[in-house]
């Protein structure tokens, strides 16, 4: 996952967005799927970003790859034990939280504003790392 510092060109509001790749961000932006959580504008561009630098120690490429592989294994396990609800993730999470449907593990897609709204309601949602098979 890539975290971009974003800003809407209309209101100049700054916010962060998580994307699978730079291409994913550009595609979502072209389709007006990226919107400012402050004003709802879909006129969004990347803001200035500082590189992520670890001052305490340098993580080697092999260690970083091994950590990412572990995260992918955990994501596969979570998916295997959960129901895929697609773009209805936020709505289904609310139904489960408020007891309108049976409690179960789910996964799917949600926009950043949807995830923030869930958090405001006390509903936990965490991003899963991308998997190579997602691109097939």
Automatic annotation (TrEMBL):
Protein name: DUF1178 family protein
InterPro entries the UniProt entry points to: DUF1178
